[in-house]
Fold this sequence. Notes:
Elements: E1 10-21, E2 24-35, E3 39-43, H1 50-57, E4 65-70, E5 73-75, H2 80-85, E6 88-91, H3 103-107, E7 114-115, E8 122-123, H4 125-138, H5 155-168, E9 173-177, H6 185-200, E10 204-208, H7 212-218, E11 221-226, E12 229-235, H8 241-248
Parallel strand pairs: 3-10, 3-11, 6-9, 9-10
Antiparallel strand pairs: 1-2, 1-4, 4-5, 7-8, 11-12
Helix pairs in contact: 5-6
This protein binds adenosine-5'-diphosphate (ADP) and magnesium ion.
Amino acid sequence: MSTTATQQMIALEGRGLTKVFGGVAALNNVDVQFPTGSVTAVMGDNGAGKSTLMKILSGVHPADSGILEVNGHAQVFRSPSDARDAGIETVHQDLSLADHRDIAANLFLGRELTTGWGPFRRLAIKRMREEALESLTALGVDIPSVAAEVRHLSGGQRQAIAIARAVHFGCSILIMDEPMAALGLREAQKVQNLITDLASRGITQIIVSHNLDHTFAVANRIIVFRQGRVAGVHDTSTASPSDVLHTINGLD
Ligand SMILES: Nc1ncnc2c1ncn2[C@@H]1O[C@H](COP(=O)(O)OP(=O)(O)O)[C@@H](O)[C@H]1O
Ligand SMILES: [Mg+2]
């Protein structure tokens, strides 16, 4: 087990995070740090507190107590849009895509570009398609056409669209819940490549995962949760998958 070098810049930090649901502490006085540009996997058994942490970091729930800092500045998130304003985007497990709309429309969902004024204002469809194509090409995402409906895409393509949407608007911190679950080997590999590419662009990533192979392929660090507490932090360059399993199962 190892800790991160202290001289590293910290993009996101939580200190003393606690969240209680009906008398049960889903998170119990948790300290977490996410170094700038790192890829951190969050692992742990069902009920360990992973989703609760993601929800606090993305502004879905407030913590009952504790402090959040983004780039060293204290932040209070009252909503997901507060977290977005601080540069944090989240790709939820359901992806929140509009299945019957095209790829470009999905990339700009809720943040549509418009043209014209007053009664002449309308969606800038051509510009959104051009920008969507540019953005997806830059990320190396394979799609048939930006005018294709999302329901016709594979699981991996859908995941890539959701990730591209999150980064299109310039986030510096990206939270993903199980981005490679339910994907075949080749598609999981493509999503892994995308995560590695985003890391090379300096985006700090936090990934909930149940799969040790995926985790070791993309993450620099693994934070293991057990019963609402941090059970251990591993560095993937020095730890083995069995070290991590031991921590998940509470054997060390
Ligand atoms: N909205 C909620 N209401 C009541 N209990 C909750 C709620 N969310 C989570 N919990 C409880 O908090 C604990 C941690 O849950 P969660 O963060 O979802 O764990 P994980 O994502 O690691 O499986 C569990 O005991 C769960 O039942
Ligand atoms: Mg969960």
